[in-house]
Amino acid sequence: MSMQRRDFLKAGAAAAAAAGLAGCAGLPGGGSRARVVVVGGGYGGATAAKYLRLFDPSIDVVLVEPNEAFVSCPISNLVLGGFRTMASITTPYTGLVNNHGVRIVRDMVTAIDTDKKQVRLAKGEALAYDRVIVSPGVDFIAGAIPALERPDAQARVLHAWKAGPQTVALRRQLEEMRDGGVYVLSIPEAPYRCPPGPYERACQVAAYFKAKKPRSKVLVLDANPDVTSKGPLFKKAWAELYKGMVEYRGNSKAIDVDLRTGAVKLDLDDVKGDVLNVIPPMKAGKVADPFVTANKRWCEVDWLTFESKAAKGVHVLGDSTLSAPLMPKSGHMANAQGKACAAAVVALLNGESPNPAPTLSNTCYSFVSDTEVVHVASVHKYDVAARTFKTVPGSGGVSSGRNELEAGYALNWARNIWADTLS
Amino acid sequence: MIAIARYLAAAAATLAAGLAVAQQPAPPAFAPSNLSPAGVRSLAANCAACHGTNGKPAAGSTLAGLAGKPRNELLTAMSQFKLGTKPATVMHQLSKGYSDAELAALADYFSKQSR
């Protein structure tokens, strides 16, 4: 009875918030309250939205996100391996609304008008902001894999590098593949989202093949000269757990795919496969295009505030930024940046100086099988001379070897970072 | 004559040393720790990804909760991780990224959070 009543009250509050929001659309940021609009509800944006409200409950925070729920990229490779379900990596956005008073607008941002200080939405509304936080993740570089410009080709040759429908579709392709088939994984040149992710994926697909399709092969075509993260640990896992099943080729950059023959085209030869999983090279998420300043790909920021070097009042964080040296584009890093950015925005809105000594930490766990894990960890501090983050000498490192203890830690890490980001 | 030779040798040595220094990457010039309340709150936010917001783990998590633990217990554990005297999978690597004063401030912060 009381639960039903509480749910009813929550629903009423959500409806009232939505109505109030519509009323505010187009007007300056809600009277005397400062308004921050956060674009993108991934690890970076959702964390920033929550911590803005934790650090200063007087701020009106609006999170614009097109997806109904958060689907985690970390752990999603286990869905490909068949060891986890999509439901287990999906978290609703309701915790941000009910526990923290974040207002969520389910829409796409079409433009950020930095003169009028408005975020324009696909459904036609505009949201006024005092500061805007842009955390759209990555997009793929148009034309890098020419054949994949066509939607029908995109539906056949998947990237599955944004967890969601493509994760489900790639798992189905793996299930439908004959035993004795070849799964080809094409990795783009660094920097890309989640440095160890492709190598974990090779392990997960191999684990599935080992159990269910033992005559099959995993062929890794890496545009980079060598494994870019945790190399010795991954290579040991391939040699010891998946002997003869995983083949790794460095310096093998995909320049196109041939849909007729089912091949990934390299500079010198074509590599055929039964399932092609081509991860194209990446850039900042499209909505951040006006703030791209580096190599036509990434957004440079002032690392003390995450304010864009291209526009005042616009803060960019997560995968879209031009990463500091040795800083990974990871969910954990985006979560850490979300908090540092939120603290800086709160300080600036209150006329205070931002933290002059921010620290960011990162831990990435990779499942090399369904039960064993390896990690890489780092701590990044602000260097006043270089005006960027650098890793603290002597800190960080990788696992001494793959182990089951850290598999438990990895799943608990997921549970806690999802709650820290969304609950 | 000898004095001039010595001077030239010394100048050459200085130049060589200068070149050697120039070729080394500059050591990091990290900002001094910010141990103001807001600074410590931001520092502590790093721990939350694994240990839960303000040190309170999510329901069902088996990772160590930090909120409301005695200050000395927290500081001893972190210091031993940093020294390498307490076995760890990752904390020995992460704790080395924080100064002793920062670890003390973190222990203080989490000890004062409600469980």
Q: Explain this structure to me?
A:
- The complex is a heterodimer of chains A (423) and B (115).
- Chain A folds into 2 domains: 25-138 and 284-352, FAD/NAD(P)-binding domain; 142-280, 3-Layer(bba) Sandwich (FAD/NAD(P)-binding domain), CATH 3.50.50.
- Chain A contains 10 helices and 25 strands.
- Chain A has helices spanning 2-24, 43-55, 76-81, 94-100, 151-156, 165-176, 197-212, 231-241, 331-349, 405-422; strands at residues 35-39, 60-64, 69-71, 90-92, 103-105, 109-113, 118-121, 126-128, 131-134, 138-140, 182-187, 217-222, 246-249, 256-258, 263-265, 270-272, 275-278, 282-284, 301-302, 307-308, 314-316, 359-367, 373-383, 388-391, 397-398.
- In chain A, the strands form 8 sheets. In chain A, strands 5-2-1-9-21 form a 5-stranded parallel beta sheet, with helices on both faces.
- In chain A, helix 2 packs across helix 10 (405-422).
- Chain B has helices at 2-23, 37-45, 48-51, 71-83, 91-94, 100-111.
- Classes of the chains: A alpha/beta (423), B mainly alpha (115).
- The interface between A and B is large, with 52 and 37 residues.
